[in-house]
Write a structure and sequence with these properties.
Blueprint lengths: L1 H14 L3 H17 L3 H18 L2 H17 L5 H17 L3 H18 L2 H18 L2 H18 L2 H17 L3 H31 L1
């Protein structure tokens, strides 16, 4: 199907930071998916369009693209529940960057409900960390700590330790805002050490790859 190929082509350009080509490709994918019609591919194309617009720095257009993806999900008989959750999580991050923190929290909460229902534990952890940061920005530090703590537990169970370092940073900042300086310092230092350790591993991996 032409729309499938166009979506994959747009993703290819986005992965290689060729945003202009990606935007042109994803718009063609949307047109092809509408003509098919192929609601799932149209939804995916709008999702990718949002990512492309974010990379271009146009957050308002990125949010608009996620809105279009959710409109397709609402009107179509068959779409992907999981993809809808991914769109909602992306939308939440964009809204938070635009200063619309309450709307961001709502989007993340909807995404979290879906990821929990389908058993997508890794995505649940990512969404909980996004919620932790949004609550941190809003000044709701207890909620931030609760979501970050749950995210860390999920990541430790699944072995996603690099993500743990990012979540520990949010956790440390939340404790710092509450005035729990000793706990905050310990968490931030733990996160720093994990970042250093994994940075060294990535450099070692790239070195080995270059020698192959």
């Amino acid at each position: 199907m032409a729309s499938t190929a166009l979506v994959r082509n747009a993703t290819f350009f986005l992965d290689r930071a060729k945003v202009d080509e990606a935007l042109e490709g994803v718009r063609a994918a949307v047109r092809a998916a509408k003509a098919a019609p192929a609601p799932l591919l149209e939804m995916e194309a709008h999702h990718i369009e949002g990512e492309v617009q974010r990379e271009r720095g146009d957050l308002a257009q990125a949010v608009a693209a996620t809105d279009r993806a959710l409109e397709v999900a609402s009107s179509a008989e068959r779409t992907s529940t999981r993809l809808r959750a991914e769109v909602l999580r992306s939308r939440g991050t964009l809204l938070r960057r635009l200063g619309r923190v309450d709307d961001a929290i709502l989007a993340h909460q909807k995404a979290l409900t879906i990821f929990r229902d389908v058993g997508a534990r890794t995505h649940e952890a990512r969404t909980r960390n996004a919620l932790a940061y949004a609550y941190l920005v809003k000044g709701h530090y207890e909620e931030s700590i609760a979501h970050a703590g749950n995210a860390v537990r999920i990541d430790l169970e699944s072995g996603a330790r690099m993500q743990v370092a990012k979540t520990l940073t949010n956790l440390g900042h939340a404790f710092a805002r509450l005035g729990v300086s000793k706990r905050a310092g310990a968490l931030l230092e733990q996160a720093r050490q994990m970042h250093i350790r994994y940075s060294r591993r990535r450099r070692a991996f790239r070195h080995v790859a270059c020698e192959c």
